[in-house]
Known about the structure:
64% of the residues lie in helices and 6% in strands. The chain has helices at residues 7-36, 40-49, 53-62, 68-78, 84-109, 112-124, 126-132, 138-158, 162-174, 181-195, 202-225, 239-249, 258-277, 287-315, 331-343, 347-369, 376-381, 383-386, 398-410, 460-476, and strands at residues 390-395, 418-422, 450-455, 479-485, 490-495.
Amino acid sequence: MYELNTGPRHQYIGWALVLFALASAYYNGWLVSLERGVWFDEALTAFFVEQSWDGLFKLISEFEANMSFYYISLKLWAGLFPSEIGLRFFSFLAYLGTGAIFVLAIRRIVGLWTGIVFLALFLGHFFLIRYGVEVRGYAFAGLFLAGLWYCLLRAATDGGGRWWVAYALIGLFAVHSHFFVSLGIFGMGIIALLLRTPAFSIRYWFFSHAAIALSFVPILLFVVFKESGQLAWQEPPDLRALLDTAFMYAGAAPPAPDWVRRSLLLFFAVLCGVGLLAGTRFYASDFRRMSTELTLAKASLIAVAALPVILAFVMSQVEPAFSWRFFIPFVPFFLVLVALGIGSLGRTRSLLVFTVLLGLMTTSAVSYSDRSDFSWSAQVGNMFDDCNGAEGVLFMTPNAQSVFRFYETRSREADSCNWTIYPYQMTPDNYTSSPEIYPEELTGLRDLEALWIYESHLGEDEAGIYQSYMNEIETEFRACSLVIRNEGLTLLRCVRS
Length: 497
């Protein structure tokens, strides 16, 4: 394999940049996540995996067929490492594995230096590390996508059935890590079929994708015939949603200064274009041997990075299922194109561009970590340190109760608190139940010294019931004080005196 001779000095600078990006990612990813604590979706994930196996399969079959393999895998992991750090580390391992697979693929195609460039971009991209330590399935799905891409490249260029078998086996589980992975597989498969490299086998291609499609049928049936309400909060996306997704791909955080966000988007767009247009001669001398594989790699990269966004945007005009965080697993494919663009500039210029780009990415990450609403979950955890006697908690949605339960099960002080849960204790049987099961009145308020109120994501029906409950609470308690309020949650504490 031909590799660029970057020289010791440039190699030291490159590795220094990698270490810098890793330190930045650790600080702005791990520490911000731990300071903020779990948010609603993470707490619901923890609620799922803390159930018995019967309870977990009931939740999957009736409410959340998406990410079923992730929930099962995380439950096995949580049996050994149930703490918040332990749950986050499961995603972190998947995140690191994703980066390693991409580096192996890039090194095989264009050489180690471009792999180093990609690795630093991957480690320095705040949204990747932020969601790479989240207690959700995005990093897990990214690992499967990376494995699928590597196996497809080997199958289409080396030939033989073993890589197609590996591709099919990974795909069988990949679609159950996150349903959007199927869009990435669709993009890869179409590109491989259209290009048809000399080693391509239509027979292996067909049977591999047929097996993956059959594995996806249960999720498809669930979406068609079940209404779980998981995405009821979503609306059809507009062009602004596409722009927000583009900023996310570029690692441009919303709180960052406009000039930083726009500069990142411009840099990434230009470098991606350079990576697409640059010929094989920029990377290796063996043009003929490398041309086919590099063409296939570029085409599949752009298909996996862009096609899922386009398809989801179009489909969401009818059935909304569009959020920029759903596309986190596809961002590394975009970064490979950017790394190809940087690698084609030559050693000195690529290092200069590389340094400027990492500086902008770090500025964006720091701006995101300074958001004041990141500590609200930690304040929820402090409830257990402040409880005094008999206290109650009112939840109107399962996601709010899941946050409370997450901290309750992990608090040393929880056993000393005598909590009364309103309107009902959440179980796998009543998860996302209709407001029709809510009681008309809150019984036992007179026996409480204080009442905490979680107000979050209220629908029209829940809002009406909530107002009725508040009328009861106001007659029983003298005052309700605001503990915290942000765009996701309002937390109140009502006391008698």
